[in-house]
Amino acid sequence: MFFNNLLSLAIWVPVIAGVLVLATGSDERAGFARILALIGALAGFVVTLPLFVLFDRSNGGYQFTELHQWIPALNVNYALGVDGISVLFVILNAFITLMVVLAGWEVIQKKTAQYMAAFLIMSGLINGAFAAQDALLFYVFFEGMLIPLYLIIGMWGGPRRVYASVKLFLYTLLGSLLMLVGLVYLSHQAGSFAIADLQNIKQIPMGVQQLLFVAFFMAFAVKVPMFPVHTWLPDAHVEAPTGGSMVLAAITLKIGAYGFLRFILPVLPDASRFFAPVVIVLSLIAVIYIGMVALVQTDMKKLVAYSSISHMGFVTLGIFLFSGVFSGSELGELNTWGLKGAIVQMISHGFVSAAMFMCIGVMYDRLHTRNIADYGGVVNVMPKFAAFMMLFGMANAGLPATSGFVGEFMVIMGAVQVNFWIGALAALTLIYGASYTLWMYKRTIFGEIHNPEVREMKDINCREFAVLAILAVAVLGMGLYPEPFVAVVHEAADGLIAQVAQSKI
Description:
Layout: H1 6-23, H2 30-46, H3 49-53, E1 63-71, E2 76-82, H4 86-103, H5 112-131, H6 135-144, H7 146-156, H8 161-190, H9 195-199, H10 206-223, H11 232-239, H12 242-267, H13 269-295, H14 300-319, H15 336-367, H16 383-396, H17 403-418, H18 420-426, H19 428-445, H20 452-455, H21 462-480, H22 483-500
Antiparallel strand pairs: 1-2
Helix pairs in contact: 1-2, 1-5, 2-4, 2-5, 4-5, 4-12, 4-15, 5-6, 5-7, 5-12, 6-8, 7-8, 8-10, 8-11, 10-12, 10-13, 11-14, 12-14, 12-15, 12-22, 13-14, 13-19, 14-15, 14-17, 14-19, 15-16, 15-17, 15-21, 15-22, 16-19, 16-21, 17-18, 17-21
């Protein structure tokens, strides 16, 4: 019974824990709220571990499936299942939520219960989006996760938190409404909202596919976010508390790329081929231009936010690498290296981006500024912290033996197979990534201490050390031995490539 409902547990354990934490009430019971939140986050993570251990890597289909009637009149079901693509995101989400609870343990002093509850509830809703096998159920979770994120930024963010949260909400909502229209049309054609039925629609005229592609693309491109609908992300990151930035970069951006994999490619393969050159160009702009924008930032959070946009450009590039693109010949199949590399890159970026924002949060908690010029010489007073930040900076720059190298290398390999110049332009991220990351690190960590307040900074405590050490193990473990992650993805990615090969015209 337990193993038959693992996905429901992954969704509802953190949600119920969040409600219980919320019920603790005022700040007088903040200590109890923290302990209850930690128990809930730990339980939410533990119930996802059997998903990885028991996952059949030779099976490219959905596993741990659940099916219950929800709205019979509309043929809408509570249908759950994960394949080799989505199972990793469920586990990653639960892991990052646990890190976020630990990261905010002492930092959040006001409305502590509400803060912790928002993250737990959001964690369950995000898991629901990754596990949903009914399109309407996916839409409910996809929209529902926006509410706690909006509250996290709007209540615990910086001076411009209201502006940032409203901008995030409006950008995401507009794209989501277009997706809902597309889902209603497809469900009418398929006779149900089951994602498998939507993917199996036999014939969709090219003109209709193109309109549907635009509708879905707007919803997911904003979430990634892709250039030019990326402008909400730097504002959201700068104003969000540390935990909000960790979840936003590590998890919520992945929902957009996941939507490409689950809806656009298999449901609209012909339109995906047609628009692939446009998506590749936008992705390369994100990799190159946004990387250049990151170079001139003076705010650490904004720099890493632009870095995330650049790295997610790598993800969308890998997803839409069709053979024959820009060669004048008819577009063919998806590139295996590119697709699998994009998925691996998403997992790696989850670890690295969460670690980078955690490091920035550690410094901000001590000096209450994110301005790079206010630092310098931090290594003299925080040597342990400096070592961790060096590791994560190297991973952000794509250094071999770190997780940041694995996915980027696979995408570059795939891009070179498709078109040498696409691969060459994509490889510039290795130069830009090293430039803006090491430039920030040099100015904040090395050198002499010029700001007297830096001299008073204390090195990381046991809690901070534990969080950074766990993230370091994840970054190094995936970088040194990526095979377990690639093996999980392999069959599902091959199955997706076979699905996309089938024309819907």
